[in-house]
Amino acid sequence: MTNYKNVLFENNGEIVHLTINRPDKLNALNIDTIAEIKTAFEEIYDDSTIKGVIVKGAGEKAFVAGADISEIAELTEVNARKFAEAGQEVFASIENCHKPVIALVNGFALGGGCELAMACHMRVATATARFGQPEVNLGVIPGYGGTQRLTQLVGKAKSFELCMTGDMIKADEALQLGLVNHVMESIEAAQAKSEEILGKIMAKAPVAIGLVIDCINAVNNEQENGYQTEANGFAACTKTSDFEEGTTAFLERRKAAFKGE
Ligand code: COA
Questions:
Q1: What is the Cα–Cα distance from 54 to 56, expressed in whole angstroms?
Q2: For this structure, is 135 an active site residue?
Q3: 29 — phi, psi (to 5°)?
Q4: Which atom of ligand 1 is nearest to the CA of 111?
Q5: Which residues' Cβ are closer than 6 Å to ligand 1?
Q6: How many angstroms is it from 67 CA to the middle of ligand 1?
Q7: CATH top class, domain 7-202
Q8: pLDDT tens digits along 51-61
């Protein structure tokens, strides 16, 4: 069992609740926290009993208020590149996880916090959530994939505006832009909504879910032809017993019972 210091890893049997746990620093991501997120996702990849993940921040004020500025302030050109690449790799492992990952965003999701939320497959926010890429206020730019994923989610014009002004936006605007999937009135409601979405996904064929994730991520990979990835994934599904079960259950007018095989 891993001994985490900066995150809480709570496994309720099927869903892991991964809480960034530095509330005194508004859950700012220092290097140790990034390393723990990496380890947590390795555990999530390896444990077949885990079916879905909710990522959130501890305390009332923030999801994550960014990378830890006290560490950023010390970076030089050489280690800044390593810093960004290491974080990008961890966030890519979230995006490529074959199990659904939802960010439950309450309060500030700024800089690396917005980037962490965007690396998750979906975002459920509370009405108090605030999103932004304020790195330019510090004389730097986003380094954990923010310029790329924000542009993918909201388009170039809004991404230019947010990354260049450093402005924060409220949850309702984030919803309108397609940055978040749902806005709920309270943390409890956001938690319930996240679990409801995961519950629906967990009732489907897990191999198919993993392949959907690969195909949708292929959209943003220039080295990959997403249509080919989709055709390959479609063909791969036919080799699973879940495909036989899903189609047979439909024809027999009963609910499918998937096994992940
Ligand atoms: N890195 C390190 N520490 C951070 C932090 C960050 N990204 N964001 C907040 N904190 C710390 C503060 O330094 C403060 O610590 P202290 O009590 O030891 O002084 C604590 O968290 C609370 O933050 P505070 O600024 O007092 O709260 P606030 O309610 O007045 O303001 C924010 C909230 C989010 C507007 C403000 O903290 C902020 O602008 N944070 C930085 C956001 C940012 O630029 N992120 C991108 C980083 S690349």
A1: 7
A2: yes
A3: -85, 100
A4: 46
A5: 25-26, 28, 65-70, 72, 108, 110-111, 134-135, 137-138
A6: 10
A7: alpha beta
A8: 999 999 999 99
